[in-house]
Amino acid sequence: MISILKALEQIKSAPLDAAIGTVTDVVGLVVEVGGLRAGVGELLAVLHEDPRVHALDLEVIGFRKGRLLATPLGSVAGVAPGVRVVKSTRGSAVPVGDELLGRIVDSFGRPLDELQPPRTSGRYPVHASPPPAVSRRGIEHVFHTHVRAIDSLLTLGQGQRVGIFAGAGVGKSTLLGMICRRAEADVNVVALVGERGRELGEFVRMSLGEDGLARSIVVAATSDQPPLVRARGAETATAMAEYFRDRGKRVLLVMDSVTRYAMALREAALATGEPPATKGYPPSVFAALPRLLERAGNCAGEGSITALYTVLVEGDEMTDPIADAARSILDGHILLSRKLADRGHFPAIDVLASVSRLAPQLMQPPQARSAALVRDSMATYANAADLVHIGAYVAGSDPRVDAAVRAAPAIDTFLRQGVDDGCLPEQALAMLAATARVAEGAG
Fold first, then answer.
1. CA–CA distance, 80 with 97 (Å, rounded to integer)
2. Is the link from the previous residue into 347 a cis peptide, with omega within 30 of 0?
3. Where does the pLDDT of residue 437 fall: very low under 50, low under 70, confident under 90, or very high at 90 and above?
4. Beta strand pairing status for 84-87 and 43-47?
5. Disulfide-capable partner of 245 in 48, 303, 400, 411 (CB 3.0 to 4.6 Å)?
6. For residue 287, is pLDDT > 90?
7. The pLDDT of residue 193
8. Which residues of 295-308 are buried (b: 16+ CB within 10 A; e: fewer)?
9. Which residues, listed in sequence order, are joined to residue 335 by a DSSP beta bridge?
10. Of the candidates 244, 395, 408, 257, the residue with the CA atom closest to the CA atom of residue 326
């Protein structure tokens, strides 16, 4: 009797004009629903008869032969043929507001930190369009990360979108934590997509810290979640960043990682029968990447979203299809080198292989000249390093190589920075100028 009353209450709470469909089939990651009409991206709700079971949300990802194809946003345990399905009244929106600062939430904005749900001031759409290209404000102001190697040689701008390309275990989470703690942003939005559950607590406690968390929102969708829940984590974090940007805030959006976002989309797409294209990734994944990444940046107003996206490079190969696609969309890339990490050089930024496309227009002439001298010395040393290490190079053979060899220890010291060592922008520029003088042979 109780289950019948519960079902009646759920039906009464649905819109009067809403049709009721039924589950016709469940195969792997796809739930087929008959008797309903809905568009791709809309949410459905499975009405369980058991009052102790929460309604299961489904996201429509396609349709076939008059039936909807949907992916569950939770466990399908208990779903049986004939179970009733209605359109969800929540829609594809997430809670937003200052009340979320300092909180850890899931892909739907629900708290994961065992605290009371925040009373947020509004909701923002998860699937939003990027700002119009013509109305975007130009990038004119420097974004200070307080990481010496970035601020001096790879200068970023407010509203720039940059990829951090790295293999596993080279310090990308540590670098992200350094930036989130000290970067000159009003709000940080951190998306941990497809990460191991253990890493969530470690990132919050060790990399982000209490000070960093106080002005941050952490959106976590761990690897045990269904694929579209993981993908939704990236979109939810972007929607929250858009809310603060639209209110004139300087937002730092950090996403770890774009690769796992693409993997989640691949799982959902392959489950519906979409054919794989490049290394198992279907075409829809490469269409989804620019839709997500282009949402960051500047808008017509005063706010900005400076975005850092990590990209996992399988086998340290930059020819990975997701890495290629991301690099073509973003405004620069920072490559973390395993060779540098293996010899204890942190942050393990390979300056010569990294580029900020906006650095030339953001650097002042003295900084640009110093940066060019340091990079030239690094490139000269890299070309002759093998000969120097095996003792085949004879000092005096090439004055430029001699100067690069003398400057190498100073440059190496300049690029190293401890996790807890902050570096103000003016300090970074002063140290860059001093290192450039050594590289030029005047030190």
1. 38
2. yes
3. very high
4. antiparallel
5. 303
6. yes
7. 94
8. bbbbbeeebbbbbb
9. 165
10. 257
Give the pLDDT confidence of 384-429 residue by residue, as tens digits: 888 888 888 788 788 899 999 999 999 999 999 998 888 999 999 9
Residue type, 365: P
Residues contacting 93, CB < 8 A, separation 6+: 123, 124, 125, 126, 239
Coil, strand or helix at 85: strand
Contact between 310 and 257 under an 8 Å Cβ cutoff? The reply is yes
Residue 325 is encoded by which pair of tokens? 């696609």
Strand pairing category for 142-143 and 187-193? unpaired
| Type of residue numbered 19 | A
pLDDT in tens, 335-385: 999 999 999 999 999 999 999 999 999 999 999 999 999 999 999 999 988
Average pLDDT over residues 190-201: 88
C-alpha distance from residue 407 to each of 328, 345, 372, 373, 400 (Å): 34, 17, 14, 11, 11
Instruction: Mention every residue, 6+ apart, whose C-beta is less than 8 A from residue 154.
Output: 332, 334, 349, 351, 354, 355, 356, 359
Alpha helices, H only, 247-309: 258-271, 283-293
